[in-house]
Design brief:
The protein is an alpha/beta fold and about 210 residues long. It has one domain: Ribonuclease H-like superfamily/Ribonuclease H (Nucleotidyltransferase, domain 5, 2-Layer Sandwich). Helices cover about 40% and strands about 15% of the residues. The chain has a 6-stranded mixed sheet with strand order 1-6-5-2-3-4. β2 and β3 form a beta hairpin. α3 crosses α7 and α4 packs across α5. It is globular, with a radius of gyration of 17 Å. The two termini are about 35 Å apart.
């Protein structure tokens, strides 16, 4: 299901409100899920999944965890290994640029998210997702508008997805030089669009995406 949301109720920082309600209802393994790279012109789309330990006390220890887009690269890189240590389980999944071109970006995002869930060593009792629903999963799911700003589990997943994808794009920059992939991570910056106009798309670019 998709939970409706009043924008005026957006918290100052993501918290464990949704997780606490699910824990109280008997679900212990709650997996937050979020993606990174959905709007990029090159490279894969990535998804992160994480199961935080039950208990409201974790909210204080996770102060500073935000939607990855609201954090600096240094903050994300500092938090990613800490989250992996704290988590009961975590996973990252990718869908390649070829899969994006053949399936479409939304089905490819579903695929990356399902792969992240499949990588968890603990089976989730419930999934919390940021504006996403996994049609192939039989697990109970809640899709939250602005979920990465409301749920600590989803925000933590966004950090894992973003740092994993950024690391991969830095590697791909060495294989496909001249586009600045290590800098803009495949997104459609002015410099990236100019490089495409001069060089054409590389083998790592999404051929189905139009360049504005």
């Amino acid at each position: 299901m998709t939970a409706r949301f009043d924008p005026s109720l957006l918290p100052a920082a993501p918290d464990l409100s949704f997780e606490e309600a699910l824990w109280a209802a008997g679900a212990q393994a709650i997996s937050g899920i979020d993606e990174a790279g959905r709007g990029a012109l090159a490279g894969p789309v990535a998804a992160g999944a994480i199961i935080l330990p039950p208990g409201s006390a974790w909210a204080e220890r996770l102060q500073g965890v935000r939607d990855s887009k609201q954090m600096t690269p240094a903050q994300r890189e500092a938090w990613a290994p800490r989250l992996k240590i704290i988590a009961l389980a975590w996973g990252v999944g990718f869908a390649s640029h070829e899969e994006i071109d053949s399936l479409g970006i939304l089905p490819a995002t579903h695929l990356a998210a399902q792969r992240a869930v499949d990588a968890l060593v603990v089976r989730p009792d419930h999934l919390l997702l940021d504006c996403l629903f996994l049609p192939e999963s039989a697990l109970p799911q809640t899709s939250l508008i602005k979920g990465d700003c409301r749920s600590l589990s989803i925000a933590a997943a966004s950090i894992l997805a973003k740092t994993a994808r950024d690391a991969l794009m830095q590697q791909l920059d060495a294989e496909f030089p001249g586009y600045g992939l290590a800098i803009h991570k495949g997104y459609g910056t002015a410099a990236h669009r100019a490089a495409i106009a001069q060089r054409g798309k590389s083998a790592i670019h999404r051929q189905s995406f139009q360049i504005k």
